[in-house]
Amino acid sequence: MAEPGAPTIHGIIAYPVTHFTAEGVVDARRLAALVDRLVCSGVHAIAALGSTGELAYLDEAEFDTAVDTAVAAVSGRLPVVLGVSDVTTAKTIRRALRATCRC
Fold first, then answer.
1. CA–CA gap between residue 91 and residue 45 (Å, rounded)
2. Which UniProt keywords apply (predicted)?
3. pLDDT tens digits for range 45-94
4. Which of 23, 31, 79, 100 satisfies CB 3.0 to 4.6 Å to 45 for a cystine?
5. CA 13 to CA 39: how far, in whole Å?
6. What is the DSSP letter of 69?
7. For the ranges 11-15, 34-38, 48-52, 63-67, which has the lowest average pLDDT?
8. What string of H, E and C letters represents the secondary structure of 13-37?
């Protein structure tokens, strides 16, 4: 059951790909630009780290950067759904708590 006042998830939910630089680090500038473009194009929600495949390969610093970047780029304009899964329960819980703090 949703919390009172929580946004309803509906319509088109965009799954942005997390960009990386040539040096192999999360390209926050490109990710932010992509998320902003998706928001401005009329989607109803953003699902960062959803099902595009990169989540399983991110270390915790990369995860934090991607989450912080996506949430900041949305800037409260739409609901944000964040992928948090990992192969360990402890990391999944850590990621879920981190995501909860950012949304």
1. 25
2. Lyase
3. 999 998 888 998 999 999 999 999 999 999 999 999 999 998 999 999 99
4. 79
5. 10
6. H
7. 48-52
8. EECCCCCECCCCCECHHHHHHHHHH
